[in-house]
Write a structure and sequence with these properties.
Elements: E1 6-10, H1 17-29, E2 38-42, H2 48-55, E3 60-64, H3 81-87, E4 91-94, H4 97-102, H5 107-119, E5 123-128, H6 132-136, H7 140-154, H8 157-160, E6 164-167, H9 181-198, H10 201-206, E7 208-212, H11 220-225, E8 231-234, H12 241-248
Parallel strand pairs: 1-2, 1-8, 2-3, 3-4, 4-5, 5-6, 6-7, 7-8
Helix pairs in contact: 1-2, 1-12, 5-7, 7-9
Bound molecules: phosphoenolpyruvate.
The site of phosphoenolpyruvate has 13 residues, from strand 8.
Length: about 260
């Protein structure tokens, strides 16, 4: 069965509520009646409610950019999976390299968050990726494997069916220097092979794996033509309605 492409906008720490309202209205204007891609936006927590209201009659889905792995309680400043589910999120981005680097999140913590997301019917978009030095030292595959190992350790077969991975090489994020379609496809194929080896052929074939790192209107078509790339996780280009629409309305078809 073909995997439906998914384009996800990660707004990061951008857009006030007022700015979010304008951006969402503009994005909605670019929607086509028949959309071949699934689309999701992940605004900051403060804009999720208003996004939900504005997106009600559209097929744009909502995601969050982080959450904590505990159910509830005295964890000042944190947001739970239950809260995200209740506000209408379908996805949650976990383990983004900015969280791993600036907030020192470990692969184990990220795996626990992903498991908790699944407990609340959220789809975790688990990000993995190597830095430039690791790539140059030919350690990229090893690094990705290590990051994913923590997920494999606690995920049962039925959990893995609900996961999305995003391969985001750190050297390509926000730098304007995207991985080539070949590089991106090759790593995504490797991730799929790890899933196949640990779980089943069926799960490996159905799981979506996105690419992220300087995706824009110049490279989206070529990236999406690659057999293993199922979509994009987009930072910078998702902050403008035109540039984001050029991604979810990309026009290469491989199926
Ligand atoms: C990201 O932060 O997930 C990302 C891919 O950013 P950008 O598209 O700006 O490189």
């Amino acid at each position: 069965m073909a995997r439906k492409p998914l384009i996800v906008g990660n707004w990061k720490m951008n857009k006030t509520v007022t700015e979010s309202i304008s951006l969402i209205r503009e994005i909605v204007d670019f929607l086509k009646r028949e959309q071949n891609t699934e689309i999701a936006i992940c605004p900051p927590f403060t804009s999720i409610w208003v996004a939900r209201e504005l997106l009600q009659d559209t097929n744009i889905l909502l995601g969050a950019q982080n959450m904590y792995y505990k159910d509830e309680g005295a964890y000042t400043g944190e947001i739970s999976a239950k809260m995200l589910q209740n506000i209408g999120c379908k996805f949650v981005i976990l383990g983004h390299s900015e969280r791993r680097i600036y907030f020192k999140e470990s692969s184990q913590e990220i795996a626990s968050k992903a498991k908790q997301a699944i407990n609340y019917n959220l789809i975790p978009i688990i990000c993995v990726g190597e830095n430039l030095e690791e790539r140059e030292l030919n350690q990229a595959n090893y690094i990705i494997q290590e990051q994913i190992k923590s997920v494999f350790e606690i995920f049962k077969m039925h959990d893995m069916e609900k996961v999305i991975f995003a391969y985001e090489p750190i050297w390509a994020i926000g730098t304007g220097k995207s991985a080539t379609p070949e590089e991106a496809n090759s790593m995504i194929k490797f991730i799929r092979a790890l899933v196949r080896e640990k779980y089943t052929e069926k799960i490996a074939e159905q799981i979506k794996i996105l690419y992220g790192g300087s995706v824009n209107h110049n490279n989206i078509n070529e990236l999406m033509l690659k057999p293993d790339i199922d979509g994009a996780l987009v930072g910078g280009a998702s902050l403008n309605a035109l540039t984001f629409s050029q991604l979810f309305n990309y026009n290469s078809r491989k199926y």
